[in-house]
User: Fold these one by one.
Assistant:
Number 1:
Amino acid sequence: MSTLLNKKDFYNLDKNDIIELLQLDSDSMIDLVKKANEIRLKYRGDKVYFRGLIEYSNICKKNCLYCGIRSGNKNFIRYTIQDDEFFDAVKFAIRERYGSIVIQSGENTSPAFIDKITEYIREIKNISNNKLGITLSLGEQSFETYKKWYDAGAHRYLLRIEESHPELYKKLHPQDGNHDFAARYNCLLNLKNIGYQLGTGIMIGLPFQTIEHLAEDLIFMRDLDIDMCGMGPYIEHPDTPLYQYKDDLWPLKERFNLTLKMIAILRLMMPDINIAATTAMQAIDPMGREKALQAGANVLMPNITPKQYREEYLLYENKPCIDENPDDCISCLDARVQMVGYQVGYDDWGDSAHYFNRKKL
Ligand code: SAM
Ligand code: SF4
């Protein structure tokens, strides 16, 4: 067992410590995961919080080199969910006693889009009697737009930095003036200043990425003092420029194990944050999300997007659950959570304890 795991406090792990933990072999990795689970139970209890994920639109003005719904990909149909379908999904979440929903979308900064989201946030608060928590994941927007949505009632925002190393960020995005590391970082600062619970994250196993980058990503998240994290393996998509590097990537199994280690180490470093078990984990291993829960994650985001749109929100190959309706998924989810030793936190926003601790509320 690594002697690092005997530490009393993991907040100050340095880059070399993190690299040592990321390189643990599969036997020692079990000790890391066990330790992370202990810390998770101590600081966040045994609850798993559901956020019903609505993939609102795949229209995107960006062209990230890894993403299947990038604006340059013309090989699929663009959609935006209609109002009645959107509210059917919201009502489903209320009925199933999910504590929260996440509205996610390709990036759109048009006034019509901004107004529509504002209207939706107000209406969700209204029809749920303020019972449903709202997380947004709608990309880079102006300070004013973030503020407008916050004032309307959204309280958490997820904006992955994707890769915290500016040089690597550059290699993963077109150099067209529309994909700028500093601008994205500034969005994170704005979100925090406005008062959102701040979530970020990265992809693991990207072309050109090294273990050193991953260690620095964890330090980046600690130093930004985030409240929530969503990180998952990078999975290649054939209609993207980065697909040409598919033979140089770490094998899927390794990307998966590295993601588990990243989750476990982050849980040790930041015991009171929320960490999501992401869908991309399930794309690699049918039990992927459950394994992430056992490594320190405490949030699940069941997809409640209407079935007819799911095939058009293909960020990567083999995305799971695209041929299921929301109801098909829900019955087994509770059992799956219990099977790995946790309880679903029904009717609970499941906010990040770290947010309240850092705000001294
Ligand atoms: N457009 C918004 C944004 O980029 O912040 C939100 C939606 S975007 C589809 C959500 C996340 O999908 C991104 O932050 C990215 O990390 C992830 N993603 C995109 N392409 C991916 C891929 N090929 N493999 C794994 N995750 C991917
Ligand atoms: Fe658009 Fe987000 Fe995909 Fe980038 S990751 S192309 S911003 S949907």
Number 2:
Amino acid sequence: MKTMITLVASMLFALAVMAAGPANAAGPSAPQAQRAVLITGASSGIGRKIAERLAADGHLVYAGARKATDLEALGRIANVRPVRLDVTSAADIAAAVETVTKAGHGLHGLVNNAGIASVGSFADTTEEDFDLVMEVNVHGPWRVTKAFTPLLAASKGRVTNIGSLSGTVSPRDLGVYSMTKHAIEAYTDSLALQLEPLGVQVNIIEPGNYNTEIGSNAAARLGIETRMSDRSRFPEPDDVATAVVHALFAPDPKRRYLVVPNQREAEVIIRKAIEELVQLNGEQPYSYDRDALVRMLDEALRP
Ligand code: NAP
């Protein structure tokens, strides 16, 4: 009788597991256990898109924003808890840690998304603007991650940084912005090694051109009009949000996610990475010949 009960119980358990689907499976329609995720810069653009997507998937989203109107708007979305969070403010960050800790749901994911752009030559960039872009784009993710690491470690969670194509290429008039996005590449790699022993995985999304407020916000701050200001010719960043879902929940997340709206942007990035490889390899005493380079590439391509 006892064996029969055990058998029926395990069958019911198996059916329940099959009905629930694999825990943490990624993909737009894959069922997932509800997890808590904090997103910085969720008032508009990519951050807002990620917040909407995770909330629609049933996750608990702590959505960071600075303005009262944005916090109110975010608070009207089901599953979203707005959190006042300027990533340059130590007081905001400490208060956000307290809010998340007191809520008692832990923290599975941190998405370091808040960012601003700077346009123009290095010569024309003011000290003040240089410092601001570094503060938001570089110091911000470092500060916020440091503050939330104990919560992330407790859940063996994930850190997903929002990088950019400008973490690989450095367009002429986006020098300061590219410096910050290159910094986030290095930050991601070192942080991944540092947090691995704690069971926290770290990755980076590298979006191409999408329709957000980044250009108009930079133009307003700098008091200039550029071709970048109106980004309505680019697609909405839904694919970026999909990549974030994979980065946060897939059992085997990638370290880098290149997310671009067309082949041309992908080609620019891959060619730049190859160009750098060739520049590093060339004309030095320990250069590799073509065959050795192809062998290395084959090895790196092996799953
Ligand atoms: P966006 O629409 O301008 O959004 C930027 C977000 O960052 C806003 O929520 C903004 O809040 C927030 N933010 C700015 N300064 C902040 C601060 N001090 N503290 C906290 N939040 C702050 O631009 P976006 O394109 O979505 O940018 C999001 C991320 O994607 C950035 O890291 C950007 O570099 C990256 N990215 C964008 C693209 C693209 O094509 N759009 C491509 C590659 C990478 P406020 O509304 O309060 O200013």
